Amino acid sequence: MTRGAPFPDTVTVHVPFRIVKRGGRKEMLVPTARTVQRHADATFVKALARAFRWKQLLDTGQFSTIADLAEREKISTTYLARILRLTLLAPDLVEKSLEGYFGTDLQKAALQADFPSEWEAQRSLSLAYESAR
Length: 133
Fold this sequence. Notes:
This protein is mainly α. It has a domain of 91 residues. The chain is built from 6 helices and 2 strands; from the N terminus they run ββαααααα. It is elongated and about 75 Å long.
């Protein structure tokens, strides 16, 4: 059988399969689709939980300054401020992070000082990290 030039109005679909013999019969085996299991980074989830708990403590007035809270938690004020920055993440990015959708690159970037606080800018930056994966 020879193949001619494909017609411009036709669509060609490629389906990978193997033919195997089972019990004297031929069967067509199609490769199974593999689903990717995503797992959230436990360290990042813990940092998010701490950030929102600390923000709540500051918002309710239990601690008047970051320095007071850092002293009680026995951590540096710079670390506390860096983790508190996670509360500025867009809600949909927080959800995707908890679902394990993003890798550690975006999560590390969220802790950097130059990470944008505007949600739209965060989303466009997350798309750049997503396309790099």
